[in-house]
Amino acid sequence: MEDSFGHIFKITDWGDTHGPYMEGRVEGCPAGIYVDLSFVRSELARRASDGKGFATGRKEPDRVEFLTGLDEAGCTSGAPIVFRIANADVVVSSNRQVMRPSHASFTYFKKYGYKDQELCGRASARQTVCRVVAGAIAKLALQPIGVEFSSEVVSMAAPRCEGDSVGAVVRGHIRNLPAGLGEPVYDKFSARLAYAMLSINAAKGFEIGLGYEAAKMCGSTYNDMQRSDYSFVTNHDGGVQGGITNGEEVFFTVAFKPIPSVRFPQQSITFDGVPAVLEGSGRNDLCVAPRVLPVVEAMAAITTLDFILLADSQKMC
Amino acid sequence: MEDSFGHIFKITDWGDTHGPYMEGRVEGCPAGIYVDLSFVRSELARRASDGKGFATGRKEPDRVEFLTGLDEAGCTSGAPIVFRIANADVVVSSNRQVMRPSHASFTYFKKYGYKDQELCGRASARQTVCRVVAGAIAKLALQPIGVEFSSEVVSMAAPRCEGDSVGAVVRGHIRNLPAGLGEPVYDKFSARLAYAMLSINAAKGFEIGLGYEAAKMCGSTYNDMQRSDYSFVTNHDGGVQGGITNGEEVFFTVAFKPIPSVRFPQQSITFDGVPAVLEGSGRNDLCVAPRVLPVVEAMAAITTLDFILLADSQKMC
Amino acid sequence: MEDSFGHIFKITDWGDTHGPYMEGRVEGCPAGIYVDLSFVRSELARRASDGKGFATGRKEPDRVEFLTGLDEAGCTSGAPIVFRIANADVVVSSNRQVMRPSHASFTYFKKYGYKDQELCGRASARQTVCRVVAGAIAKLALQPIGVEFSSEVVSMAAPRCEGDSVGAVVRGHIRNLPAGLGEPVYDKFSARLAYAMLSINAAKGFEIGLGYEAAKMCGSTYNDMQRSDYSFVTNHDGGVQGGITNGEEVFFTVAFKPIPSVRFPQQSITFDGVPAVLEGSGRNDLCVAPRVLPVVEAMAAITTLDFILLADSQKMC
Amino acid sequence: MEDSFGHIFKITDWGDTHGPYMEGRVEGCPAGIYVDLSFVRSELARRASDGKGFATGRKEPDRVEFLTGLDEAGCTSGAPIVFRIANADVVVSSNRQVMRPSHASFTYFKKYGYKDQELCGRASARQTVCRVVAGAIAKLALQPIGVEFSSEVVSMAAPRCEGDSVGAVVRGHIRNLPAGLGEPVYDKFSARLAYAMLSINAAKGFEIGLGYEAAKMCGSTYNDMQRSDYSFVTNHDGGVQGGITNGEEVFFTVAFKPIPSVRFPQQSITFDGVPAVLEGSGRNDLCVAPRVLPVVEAMAAITTLDFILLADSQKMC
User: How far is C1 from chain A (nearest CA, A)?
Assistant: First the structure.
């Protein structure tokens, strides 16, 4: 109940950034989808660090291994799919008793009673490797009906000094989506998409269509008019009206805060409240972008496939 | 599965703005909560139209009637709670074949096959009356532990002409929330809150803490530092770190687009694609604010109580 | 979460045998199913008492009213369906403080704190009227693909004296069921069917196929052999192997205990533990059979349709 | 959704009897439960084969390895628990194209399209090793409040010849269970218990309390009378009334059919419908009992703990 995503096409995962593996499970994937490993690898490569610029010095090959759920031909069997990716470059940090500011250190301590930075490994962006694999499977399942996903970095903050982390805004696109997806009240397509995006580490904001810009507008200029062939003159709504897709492109943005870790010392406290200095390291990204792009697309693909299968379950076929 | 909200404290509702009643059901409410009817009524009154300004001319007393789930003393019995509110002032619109631009008309047609504006009644903001009742119950359940909800209009667009609809941004606050609420990966407190807010009619954006402003910042100035007594120097994160509450105030904004209906004619098409003019009426609000404020608080309260009960289910007590 | 049945085609209901209505809600019903009211009424008539023999003297017309979810042509719209049936013949019992032996009186008291027999109204078999309506809808949805349900009374205990209640065994049949329904581990077709049947008031046992008889047999005589055309020589398994339907007839039995209420005085205690005599009345059935037959079939139909829609959600269609 | 068990304390698992590992995941386990490995091992040992009598010649040490979810002290951390057990003694069968009568061969073929006996590995009773581990955790969580589980073989069929498989009936007991567990309508304690038991391989029947015997009785002799101190004179209902526990011992039986595999040749067909002989082997049990006893107890413990946590979620604590 508490920590999966999806009604029918559902992802669950586990594993710690400091442990041997990240492991994920996808339930509800239709049978007969060919899981093109070169595509899965290329998605993982988009997420991987090149060790340069804003990216972490931690470099991992991210080789995915499917433990169950694929048949001999490499197609989904209809059974749950379980996969894992080894954590190749694990280093235990030196000052585990110092809390990382604006990170999960304090909240994990309050929720679970942990007093050890190493036990916050589930909060690491390393977890998103599982999202990317599940998202790649969802993209492959959606390919035959032509649904396409893309994303780009819209803006990135300028670092105040060398080694400082920065925030960013990312935009995502879903094209060739069938009209009629989404439930009318609580499970609106836009609501589930917001849920999916805000579940990504460091996400702090979400917009669909014009978003906050729409809040400054009047109905007379905002409303998306339709022609006699049902085509839309504008797409201010970002492809979702009344919570349901209208067949136009779905576009949305996600705001990410700066990554809590920086590459210089920060003043903090230990889990016991003693003032302490947190040393910086080169083991963290300084910005979620651009590595977060395949993660954003993955969550969009998971959300979309889930709604398509839900729609299938709503008719006798 | 498809159109309820909440894992444990769960709301489901039905009824059409053109029908006799809106009816709602709350599952999972702890027993023994005194449902103070004067409080429920006052919440409904905050949502009701005064027939003036931006608000609809449709005025309804919104008297809530509890059908089951309360005992003779007016306390929750532990069984599901079902309630209804009569639709007092129903008028059938004249041109039911003309689609309302940027409304659910077209998407309901694509999803359900409807060709009748009257059948889009679930997309009416009238539905939110049920959210307010469920939210009032959640607030009453949370009162003894001191959790407080408030909200205000942050900005509202200026109408281009008399009778035009406008967008708005609303800010919500949750105070005295226990630390440790939220799940670490997908069911982050912030993710469920975004989901709750985007499920509200006309919502197009969501931010927690500094939101999009955070995306422009550096870690060195953004990070919320803690003192030796664990208190925070700043609260840029809006009370949620790593997806879990840290005990600070949770604050968030929701962006609402202008309401699709305006009070002057709009060019549109019929469900069959014939160009047609949609006449305006005085039966719709021109802005979701300020009537949406109790709805925003209700969804925040439902989300919060759900997480508190989920936390209770995570320990033997 | 806690008191509905079904993953996709889901029934929830509420209302008290002493209150004005029983009300039910069906989610996840595919759109376009014509809800033939004469069929629904005939199913309700099978459940209704004729006031004679083992049946209650309480006679009710059981007229179902659909509040939402059907379009003007009487077909399911794809939205949740809500219906209600008025309680026509309500009489408040005289000794509400005396617990009914082997009934829900004591367990409701322990769970909810009630000390009033009138507050156990959810435990009344009156609740099953909602199951019958939902089951009728499921049967109608399954009619085009030819799935058929029937049931009969296999045995009934002989009353020890006039006015005593008796137990019974009922057998159910599902014919023309597609092969391949059911999940391989926990959500076996047989497991969900057992769950459905044991949720019926007074149910104490369940068998699929040969059931307890199978436990006395050897594999060499029990195993269902198949011919070259895949047809089965025997059907000892009752149409379910490895938890999944094999296309043969599913047959099962349900054991019901005697109804707690009898028509003569029983020695009992009050909610406060004071010895008291519970007077008998003519307001209760003496045996769940034969009125339970449409209820058994309804739960079988709900279970079956749920699995068919789940199977639809497992393929792209 | 489709193949887990439990609302709050939830088990999911995967892995194939022919693969390297069986792996399981438990969500919703409260934090701070000490997972006594010697107890887990002793439960696994009860399930393991000694290679003699009715038991398979396949012998496995069943060493459980916890991958995540336990802290350094061996206590549950509140995060999901993932564990695995290596498959030590794997032999690929020789005639993979011959279907095993009354087994999952044909139904997996119809559901998934498989034409290979090796791909039915999820249907193997090997899967129950995961249930035993999860059940051991549930038992340890319930130990402090005194809930106890036991079970015994009630009857076992006599083999017709040496090497024939046989059915059996098992009885389970849950003692010191709090009163008030279970939901009043669909999620009755008895209904969930039936669901749990019928999900076990080869299960074909379930009874609670007197079960089928109750169906032969009259209310006057069946009803469980209570004394002034609320104690019960009899316990025909098996501790559940109106679907809710009454604090008396819960007892139930489960009927198991003979295991499909026998140790001599059986006439069958291939997946393509060609008549073929299935050779027997010594690699299968001939009776689920007595190895199934810890599995029955495990499912009872999982069901019980789930209801206790659900009850916790129904109050503010």
Answer: 10
